[in-house]
Amino acid sequence: MAVNPKIPENRFDDFIKKLELQALETAEERIPLYLKIGLKDAGLILDIGCGSGMVTRDIAHLTKGKIIAIDGSEEMLKVAKKILKMYKNVELRLGEAENLPFDDNMFDIVTCNLLLMWAKNPQKVVNEMARVIKPGGTILASLEPDYGGKLHWPEHPKVDPIFAGEAIKARGGDPHIGRKLRLLFVRAGLETTIGIGNTRIWSCQEDRAYYFHARDFYVKALKEAGLSQNDIDKWEYDYLKSLDEGVQLNFFPQFYAIGKKPQD
Ligand SMILES: C[S@@+](CC[C@H](N)C(=O)[O-])C[C@H]1O[C@@H](n2cnc3c(N)ncnc32)[C@H](O)[C@@H]1O
Hints:
Layout (H helix, E strand, L loop, with lengths): L11 H25 L7 E5 L5 H9 L3 E6 L2 H10 L6 E5 L12 E7 L8 H11 E13 L5 E3 L6 H11 L10 H7 L3 E6 L7 H21 L4 H16 L4 E3 L2 E7 L4
The structure holds S-adenosylmethionine (SAM).
């Protein structure tokens, strides 16, 4: 079962590296949400689209309950198996989010992080989450971006549109998933709250550190979008210069949705 067919093999390691960094950098916005939905005292939790397991590891730290983590990619699950080998409260399963291999009303909490943007049919995924959660249980979809809200200074007319959605679309994702979260959750019959997780603007030092970790990933995305090496070099020079000068500002909203399944 290949769920991320648009990630070529040579990009897999870069992608795992990016997920690891992303998990670290976004912990400050995810952890308050996990505490808010009562993860600590939940009995059975489902984490959908667990990928390499780095976010599942945060969940495992925060709960006394058992976690079933599911992903549609065997390759991802191989990485997750290593990352999560110390966590006896996590069970890994292969499966499609659009067709969850679980009975109705099983879980106290269902989580997903950065999944709906990549799902082939996000409404079907949320409907499935609503099916498997117990009445009164809570679903959290975190870190679902909306690149339409991306702000960046200094501007770069050739590169900005690529990072503001084109690169996501080219890989089969929906760069505007953030604004659709309310629709998806309400349509699934959930009592819905929507918010933005990342209210803090990163410092230039933080943006710089992130850039160097994720550089290979970004440069490859620009090459795939058709930019010449010359354009990429010039963009990178200007980008790093504005970070060194401490004048760069970079922000895009990461939405979350919390859905409660009504009691019968
Ligand atoms: C961007 S990664 C996020 C991984 C992890 N949640 C994190 O935040 O680090 C998205 C993951 O969702 C998985 N995925 C995407 N669509 C899926 C689907 N329909 N069913 C199951 N897994 C899916 C992919 O295989 C990938 O591992």
